[in-house]
Specification:
This protein is mostly helical. It has one domain (6-69): Orthogonal Bundle (Arc Repressor Mutant, subunit A), CATH 1.10.10.10. The chain is 48% helix and 11% strand. The chain has helices at 6-18, 29-36, 40-52; strands at residues 56-59, 66-69. Strands 1-2 form a two-stranded antiparallel sheet. Strand 1 and strand 2 form a beta hairpin. The longest helix has 13 residues, at 6-18. It starts with 5 loop residues before the first helix and ends with a strand.
Amino acid sequence: MADLSPNSQRVYEAIKKLGAISEEKLKTADDIMKASGVGKAIVAASLQDLASKGFVKRVARQKSAGYYILK
């Protein structure tokens, strides 16, 4: 977690708080934005950062992508 920015850490903690720990419990960027209290652009950038570093998994769906924690 030391290699994550403060915003990415905040978004990661919000996902964890929401209980998005498996593909069956996906949360959208809007859910994560509300839980973390940061703006949508910051959440989007943080989710991309977290996904590229292997902390979260993005699952494409028909309406909006969902995210859950991998580690």
